[in-house]
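User: Here's a chain of 298 residues. Predict its fold as tokens.
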Amino acid sequence: MTTNSNDFELREAPETQLSILGKIWQDRMGRIGLLMTVSVFTISIIGPMIWPFDPAAVGADASSILQPPNSQNWLGTDELGRDVFSQFLQGSRVSLLVGVTATIIATVIGAGIGISSGYFMGRLDTVLMAITDFFLVVPSLPLMIAMGSIFGQNLTVIILIIGVLSWPRNARIIRSQTLSLRERKFVPRAKSLGATDLRIIRKHMIPHVLPLVVANTILVVAGAILAEATLAFIGLGDPDRISWGSMLHFAFASGAIGRGAWWYFMPPGLGILAIVLAFTLLGHSFDRINNPRLRDAA
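Assistant: Prediction complete.
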């Protein structure tokens, strides 16, 4: 009787999540994180349809500067008379764009290095882990600041900088999982049936590490958004794009706190707090669902 390699793929495949959203919804922290995440994404999507003014439109005269919330400007105006509510909606789009895109870059790099290092081992593992350890040891924020100063304050550059510097932790975690999977019986069995390394990685390794990748990816989004906000707050954001971080930068630079203009700095600050908390709760919930030890401890 012959045995097809697909038998091992089906037998050794990780448990299918029939309703991952349903399981997250049953988890209290996951439910809160999911609702908050959906809310922020909804705001960013419908923003252009509901903002009352052009976010970059300057006030007509001095009387429109730093006006408190009113019937026309729901969140007041900034030091140039621009509508804060419109800027808040626009800022959510830029912050999410940076966070999600940078995370995709970091995930591709981290997963590729982690799986390659853990599966092939040997000299390749030594070299890749040496590179990973270097980026883990070097503080990422000073490196981001230095690279931002060198390569410019362009949104694309900022996304690339954050993405390229956010992968090491993912690579380490995925490598550990891959090393464990490599010792399981299905790997030598698949090789004995003629499966190539690429096929084993594609059909066996990736499906098994995918839940771990997703959980850590969700957490990386929160870190990427916070990194962009930090860079923008210290003046290294894209000057042509409005983000929550740049709103905080200009609010502090204009002395909004000293002048009591709470409506200027509180919305972007709370927005950053909400989205970072949302992705953090969502990531930990997903991790608990896919990690029996964490689930039992909870």
